[in-house]
């Protein structure tokens, strides 16, 4: 015998049925090939469809979830990243720019390149990277050494590569490049030798005032000493750090955060890079 059904008559404003049809179609609730508003109401009634208020996330919680999404993508877990994105899109009240950014992220393939990079590194096997730069141009690099490094809330792929033509970095560091993992378009095996290290230069930093005690040593520091003050010569206590640097970009961003309490002592080329950065920024305020 056919199952008995209850009849519910609804009075709704003009256009509401079309909206209900659209929601049912988006959720895959259909009667045959047609969207089913009746099925939509039934799903709400038996709690298989959540229609409560949006979750209210603080700014800090949103930033934490965004960082979690980036970490999952970078670590080669795109399915979990999409699950977090879907949760936010379906249940969180988001400002339009963030919502559009998440939709854009979810609509692109989220291949986990980190896994392939680790495999090549373990085998000490050179590989080629197809990479989309910030302007969308596709570049190709032949990688002979690589490390995944954490900078400012996300992982990056630091590489030593053959290609140097368009690299405006210092001559000693032209083979070093830093790539965003989420802009990698493909990875292929390459022939040749694995280097085993990056090119690097030594940079000396001077920390003064509160940074003498507050500075936290980095793995790249090869010398770190505190010099006592000399009141007779008018010299205050200072910390001198010598660091091995493979990418001046991240060094300069770090030094700028320290403000006047950190100076680049040497080499002159890095001092000039920092000076140019400060002068360019200053022009915006004149």
From TrEMBL:
Q: Any idea where the WCX domain is? A: 201-280
A Pfam family for this UniProt protein?
WCX
Query: InterPro entries under this entry?
Result: WCX_dom
Highest taxon listed in the record's lineage: Bacteria
This protein is called what?
WYL domain-containing protein
What organism is the protein native to? Answer: Lyngbya confervoides BDU141951
């Amino acid at each position: 015998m056919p199952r008995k059904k209850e009849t519910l008559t609804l009075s709704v404003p003009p256009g509401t049925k079309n909206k209900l049809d659209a929601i049912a179609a988006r959720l895959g609730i259909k009667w045959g090939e047609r969207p089913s508003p009746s099925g939509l109401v039934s799903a709400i009634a038996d709690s298989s469809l959540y229609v409560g208020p949006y979750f209210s996330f603080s700014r800090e919680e949103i930033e934490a979830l965004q960082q979690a999404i980036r970490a999952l993508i970078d670590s080669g877990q795109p399915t979990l990243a999409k699950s977090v994105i879907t949760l936010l899109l379906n249940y969180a009240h988001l400002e339009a720019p963030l919502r559009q950014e998440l939709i854009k992220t979810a609509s692109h393939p989220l291949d986990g390149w980190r896994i392939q990079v680790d495999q090549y590194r373990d085998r000490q096997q050179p590989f080629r990277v197809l990479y989309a730069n910030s302007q969308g141009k596709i570049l190709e690099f032949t990688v002979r050494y690589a490390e995944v490094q954490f900078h400012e809330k996300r992982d990056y792929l630091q590489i030593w590569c053959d290609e140097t033509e368009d690299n405006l970095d210092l001559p000693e560091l032209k083979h070093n490049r830093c790539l965003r993992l989420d802009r990698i378009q493909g990875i292929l095996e390459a022939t040749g030798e694995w280097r085993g290290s990056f090119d690097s230069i030594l940079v000396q930093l001077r920390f003064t005032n509160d940074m003498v005690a507050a500075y936290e040593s980095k793995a790249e520091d090869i010398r770190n000493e505190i010099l006592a003050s000399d009141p007779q010569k008018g010299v205050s206590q200072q910390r001198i750090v010598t660091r091995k640097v493979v990418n001046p970009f991240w060094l300069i961003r770090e030094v700028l955060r320290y403000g006047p309490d950190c100076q680049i002592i040497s080499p002159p080329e890095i001092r000039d890079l920092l000076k140019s950065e400060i002068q360019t920024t200053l022009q915006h305020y004149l």
